[in-house]
Each structure stands twice: as structure tokens, then as C-alpha cells.
Amino acid sequence: MSTAFDARLGPSAVAPVKPHLDHPMDIRLALGILAALAGGLFYMAYSIRSDIAESGGGPTTILPFVLLGVAMLIALGFEFVNGFHDTANAVATVIYTHALPAQVAVIWSGCWNLIGVLVSSGAVAFGIVSLLPVELILQVGSGAGYAMVFALLIAAIIWNLGTWFLGIPASSSHTLIGSIVGVGVANALLRGQDGTSGVDWDQVTKIGEALLFSPLFGFGLSALLLLAMKAVIKAPELYTAPTTNAPPTPWIRGLLVLTCTLVSFFHGSNDGQKGMGLIMLILIGVAPTAYALNRAPPPGHADAFIAAAQNASKIVQAHGAGYNVIGDPRPAVTDYIHAHQISEGTYPSLAVLVQQISDSVKQYGSVAKTPLDKVQNVRNDMYLASEAMRVLAKDKESELSADGKKQIGEFKKQLDYSTKFIPLWVKVCVAIALGLGTMVGWKRIVVTVGEKIGKTHLTYGQGAAAEIIAAATIGAAGGLGLPVSTTHVLSSGVAGTMVANGSGMQWSTIRSIALAWVLTLPAAMLLSGFLFVIFRAIF
Questions:
Q1: Which residue in 235, 267, 390, 529 is a FRET match for 190, CA 20 to 30 A apart?
Q2: CA pair distance 90, 487, nearest whole angstrom
Q3: How far is it, in rounded angstroms, from Cα 486 to Cα 469?
Q4: Which element (helix H / strand E) includes 536?
Q5: How many CB atoms lie within 10 A of CB 49?
Q6: DSSP string, 201-218
Q7: How many Å is the maximal CA-CA distance in the chain?
Q8: 428-431 contacts: CB < 8 A, separation 24 or more?
Q9: Which of 339, 332, 384 is nearest to 196 (CA)?
Q10: 410-419 b/e with 16+ CB inside 10 Å = b?
């Protein structure tokens, strides 16, 4: 026990008991993890092979499959590292309050992370993808696309492993977004453009605000919740630190296990999606015939799609009346997505693009019936139109009426349904990687959260308050399609309860966490930008 703990003990007080964290991993658990990893990789390979065979086309040489395999392993590796880097926060409270033994806690948390991934909506996945430069997304199967994916994922893994090794609870969400921004800036500079033009700063700002304010909410609301609990729940045992290795009373234990479960579940449903969107980009680039378009639409989808396209086209055409488009409409639409500035060519070009998409679906009879040699182009047109609609709906200069925005929103939903989907096997493989990652390498971060934030041992009430707020914050963010950091929300929540409890803070740890918080974005940006330049020269 640290001297800080001893200094706060009275002459007759019983010292809090720390949990045992040094038990070696059970050989059965180790073999189970290896078996699950092998099974997941086999399932992934089998699913890709089956999907490509069913689509009727795919790569004809071995190189694309090699690149696909490497990219998929890196993407799943990111999720595996994310598991033991971030989810350790979820189990710290139940471990340090002896509600669950450490090995049981991490297995329990891993299972609920897996379930959270499986039931996730995909909204966060494609919110992350929208941060990427549109021109790289449209050519994701090219050398530039591979360079993008490799650079941002490897940069994120390197930074996560570095902060984990030092036992610093840094944010995987911050890391991934910083890596994406770094790639965008580097890509723009390589193309001779201003570095700021390679990033959708409006979207970055929106996500950045969620990442910035969620820890503040975690700190403040956890402190307030603990104070409210003390005022309402008059149970002294809830606000004391464990003095034996025995678990707490059943109702306290149940509360702590429930909150751990919720944080694990919502972490899986939010963080698990970040790798899904990138995996879909990889699959689209290598096997567009199987993954570029949703080939399992519901009955009547084509009619609903064409009707929504016609309504949106009329609105866009009305704003672009008096102008004609000669040639390819895509450059003007792409420029609008980059600059967020309406020019005289924006509306007429977008109207032409929407009409071309509608004509294609009408001609083929369904999105699913798009000829194999047209799939990639149709998908790119749909993605381009969807992004333009997203920007247009928020553009104050668009002068769209409420009904106009509604009609555009309906068409965007149809476009997204056709292009932004996640096969079940992708969810399963990400769930396995994240869930199994939770079960290894968790000790470093757990010790930091459990021992090094406050000067006193974590009480049952503090653990419950911090995790209730963390679960609510992460769950709400997932519903809004915003990525947040489990690490920052939970660790700031623990800090908030320490302040509310008058426990005092270990400022050396707080400074390390704050430094990592500040440095993560720029460090990830520089690392991913540097790697992108290297990989761009290779591919």
C-alpha cells in the first residue's frame, strides 16, 4: 500500500485490501483464446470466399487477396489492442471492489463486449469513414487506398501499444481520428493542395466536441451522482473501501457487476464499430462486386429508391435552374464536399448525378441487379451523392426549406442503405477480436485506474457512480452515431468521485493522463501522415 493510503488511515482503521492481479492465465483460457482466434480467422476467410463466389466476380490474381489478408489482420489487430487497452477501464471497479475476481471479470467483460459489437447499428462505423478524404474512399482499391488504410491503422496500433506499455489510459478513439486526419492532411499536401483541404473539418469538429466534452461530463456527473447517492442511500457500507478479499454484500455486488456489464456492452457497441467501417472499405476496394452494394435489399426497395431520387432531384434542380452541366458532374460535387461552398455548378451537377443514379437503378431493376462491371462506379456515385446531401442539409447557404431537407434526407437514407451495410460475419470477427483482446493485457491500465488516480482506495459507491455515468454517456453517444472514449469517460468519472469523496488526487497520474490526452491527436496525425507518405511511395 502506498504511503498516501497509510496517511489517511486512522489509528484503529483497517487498511483496504488490494485485489490479487498476478495470477497466471489459466492454460484452458489461453487455449480457448487461441482456438477462438483461429476459428474467427477461418470464418473470415470462408465468408469472403463465399461472398465473392456468390457475387459472380472478384480479383483474378493473388496479389489483391494477399493485400486483403494483411489489411484485415491489421484491422482486427487494432480491435484486439483496443480490447485490452480500453476495456480494462470497465473492469477496474469490479476488480478493486472485489465484486469479481480479476480473471472472471475480464472474461465477463469480454463476453459483453462481444455482444455489444454484434447488436451495434453501424452508425459510428460510417461516421468514422466520413472523416476520410472522399477521393481516397472513391479509389480505395488503388495503391493510395491501401496506403491510407495501412497508415492509419498501423499508426493507431503503435500509439495504443505505447501508451498501454506505460500504463497510461489514452483514448483509442482520439488515436484513430488523429490517424485519419493525418492521412487526410498528408494526402492533400502530396496532391499540391492546402493541408486543411484534405479533411472534413466540420465532421472532425463534431466528433472532436464529443471526445472533448464526454470526459468533462464523466467527471462532473459522476461526482454529482456520488453526492446524490450519499444523500439518498443511507448505507455506510456502500461508501467504504473493501477491507477483505471477500466480495461485498449481494446488492452492492449486483450493482457493481451490472454497471461493469453495461460499460462493457456499450463499449463494444461503440468502439467495435470503428474497425467495421475500415474493414468495409478494405473489402470494397478488393472485391467491389461482393461488397460495394447491398445485394440483399428488402422487397420494394427499388421503387422506394427511385421515388426518393425523383423527389430529391426536383428540389436540387429547382435550385439549379438556369444552369447546364456539360461533361462529368462529379468534379463539381466533389469540390462542394471539400469546400462546403455552393458555386453555380453545385446544384445542376448534383441534379445530374442524382438523375444518373436513379436511371441506373431503374434500368437494372434493383440495386442488387447492377452488372458486375458497373458496381464500383454506381457505388462511388451513390457515396458521392450521399456525402453531398449530408453537407447540403447542414449548409446555411443552401436555402433549403424544411420539406426540401426532409426529401433530401429520405434520398440519403436510400443511398446509405444501398452502400453502408455491414455483413454479419464482419461483426462476428470484430466482436471476437475485441472480446478476446479484453481478456489479455488488461493489468497495466487496471492498476492505473484502480490505484493511481485517487489517494484512497476505491469504494463501492465510487465504482458504481463512475460506471453508471460511463455506461450512460457511451450508450447515448452510440445512439447518436458519435465515437467517444471509454478510457476518458471512465477514468475521469473515477477522478470525479475521488473529488466528491474528498479523497484527493494523485496529480502525477492526472498529469500523465492529461498529457496523453493532449498529445494523442497530434502524435497520431504525425505518425499516420509519415506512414502514408512511405506507403504511398511503395504502392
A1: 390
A2: 9
A3: 11
A4: helix 507-538
A5: 13
A6: HHHHHHHHHHHHHHHHHH
A7: 87
A8: 428/40, 428/43, 428/118, 429/40, 429/43, 429/44, 429/76, 429/279, 430/76, 430/79, 430/117, 430/272, 430/275, 430/276, 430/279, 431/113, 431/114, 431/115, 431/117, 431/118, 431/268, 431/272
A9: 339
A10: bbbebbbbbb
| Contact status, residue 484 vs residue 207, Cβ threshold 8 Å | no
| Coil vs helix vs strand at 353 | helix
**What's the rounded Cα separation, in Å, for the pair 166 and 185?**
29
CA gyration radius for the chain?
A: 25
Helix (H) or strand (E) holding 189, with range, is helix 172-190
528: which 3 cell numbers? 499516420
Residue by residue, DSSP assigns 263-319 as HHHHHHHHHHHHHHHHHHHHHHHH-HHHHTS-S-PPTTHHHHHHHHHHHHHHHHHHH
Residue burial 241-256, b: 16+ Cβ < 10 Å; e: rest: bbeeeebbeeebbebb
Task: State the DSSP code for 341.
Answer: -
Contact status, residue 506 vs residue 514, Cβ threshold 8 Å: no
**pLDDT tens track, the chain, 539 positions:** 343 444 444 444 556 777 877 777 778 878 888 899 899 999 999 999 999 888 887 777 888 888 888 889 998 998 888 887 776 677 888 898 889 988 888 889 888 988 988 888 777 777 777 777 777 888 777 788 888 889 999 999 999 888 888 877 777 777 888 898 899 889 888 887 765 666 667 667 776 776 677 788 888 999 999 999 999 988 888 888 888 888 888 888 898 899 889 888 988 887 788 788 888 888 888 888 889 888 887 778 888 998 999 888 888 888 876 666 667 888 889 888 877 788 888 888 998 899 899 999 889 888 888 888 888 889 999 999 998 998 888 887 877 888 888 999 999 999 988 988 889 999 999 989 988 888 887 777 788 888 888 888 888 888 889 889 988 888 887 777 666 777 778 888 888 999 998 888 888 878 877 787 778 888 999 999 999 999 999 88
C-alpha distances in angstroms, 387 versus 80, 200, 208, 336, 497? 30, 11, 19, 10, 42
Give residues with Cβ within 8 angstroms of 329, minimum separation 6. 348, 349, 350, 352, 353, 356
Residue 454, beta-bridge partner list: 505
- DSSP for 66-101, please give it: HHHHHHHHHHHHHHHHHHHHHTHHHHHHHHHTTSS-
Determine the Cα–Cα distance for residues 114 and 424; give it in Å rounded to an integer.
13
Instruction: Please give the distance of CA 198 from its chain centroid, rounded to a whole number.
Output: 21
Q: By the 8 A CB rule, do 525 and 199 touch?
A: no
* Residue 9, helix vs strand vs coil: coil
